[in-house]
Amino acid sequence: MTADGPTLDLLRTRKSPKVFDLTFPGPNEIELDSMLAIATRVPDHGKLAPWRFIVFEGEARARAGDAIAAVFAIDNPEAEPERTTLERNRLCRAPLVIAVVSRAAPHAKIPEWEQTLSGAAACTLLLLAAHAHGYAATWLTEWYSYDPRIRATLGLSDAERFIGFLYIGTLARPQEDRPRPALADLVTRY
Prior knowledge:
Layout lengths: L5 H8 L8 E2 L5 H11 L11 E7 L1 H17 L5 H8 L7 E7 L9 H21 L3 E5 L7 H6 L7 E11 L11 H4 L4
Antiparallel strand pairs: 1-5, 2-3, 3-5, 4-5
């Protein structure tokens, strides 16, 4: 017997769209707060909340993009202007971008790896919360996620790292689902 219901349908139908297929409108303030509150309900050994969120919407997306483009231009002085423009517009590809930041740190009882995984779970719940609110979302970590200059410019401490940038908006067109792996290839029974 297969279980059915709206929650299971939600889980079965979530997928990551191409970032270029996200458009306006994005979530309103109430929906955003709901999504962020849901994302905090992850497994969190020790109740450390070893993650935080940075919300980029409106002009903040462009300001962050200016920082990304500036670092790109320093590292790529011969780049075509179009490429620098592409870098500048990275966070403008969706109406809302939420960065999930890991604050994992040494702890007497809680391994850093578990803390990082809690942050990854927050990303997953954000994706599901966006889907539940009727939006599409995709989780990206592109080169700027790993650049220490950009991390500093966007307000991260030396000990913090980006887990990912979640791009959230309305689908511009329907998405085809990708083939999913066969369970027989992934599951063993001990």
